[in-house]
Amino acid sequence: xxxxxQGLEQFRSALTASVRQKAYEVLVAQQKQKAAADVAxxxxxxxxxxxxxxxxxxxxxxxxxxxxxxxxxxRRAESEIAKQLHxxxxxxxxxxxxxxxxxxxxxxxxxxxxxxPPVSELLRRAVTGNFELLQRRMELEQQGFKVRLAxxxxxxxxxxxxxxxxxxxxEQETRATFAVSLPVPLWNQNKGNIEVAxxxxxxxxxxxxxxxxxxxxxxxxxxxxxxxxxxxxxxxNSKAPExxxxxxxxxxxxxxxxxxxxxxxxxxxxxxxEALDVLCATQADALQAxxxxxxxxxxxxx
Length: 302
Prior knowledge:
Elements: H1 2-52, H2 58-96, H3 119-129, H4 131-152, E1 159-168, E2 172-181, H5 191-234, H6 240-257, H7 262-297
Antiparallel strand pairs: 1-2
Helix pairs in contact: 1-2, 1-4, 1-6, 1-7, 3-5, 4-5, 5-7, 6-7
């Protein structure tokens, strides 16, 4: 019963983590799709404006073609992001028990990335909260029961009691006796079953030890990964996405005025999208590592 309850709680935690991750995937896809659409729309408006100008020489024409090529890439990226968004929405609806066709929009929110307790505390929590360790301890306990049961079977079972017999051979004959029965041979002390039970108990002990070391390794690895990404996130400028978006808009306006070259314009737009992708990917990796730590320890990190 305890193992089943722990398994149910483990499933609830895993489901909660899956919903959280899918919700963040939807949020990220929304942000990236909007950014790619904004950049592509500005580029299309820019091409329309450049075509209407009177151009002389081959340079303006080449610049228009370069911008058109960039628009193709942006629209392709937007389509791929829209595909990812649709898949994440389907998964989120399925996890939440909602209709798959229902539209999902996640409001923007700042994700909390709390500091982890010391690794020794995480390992202590895993002793009582990790489902795999609980399974192995239950198996070891069961094997201990089987060893004790096999040892109890080493003693012969002696049965005693009265016996009454009657015969009719011309006259009635009744015999009353007291019987004692016991298995033979007396020297069979169930040694074979005892040795088998002890071997299985030793196997369960080894399995528990291996699982403990594996869980410890995974906890240390996930905790280290999370702390690396968390430190990277704390070093960020909180206004970086907004400033990058404003820089992309600024480059677009100044290119229209002829104040910046085409290379600067294109580099600014691509840098904005790439930086946004890096920011989202780092947060996603940190969230995944945090979920892994919570799953391995069977506790919530606050």
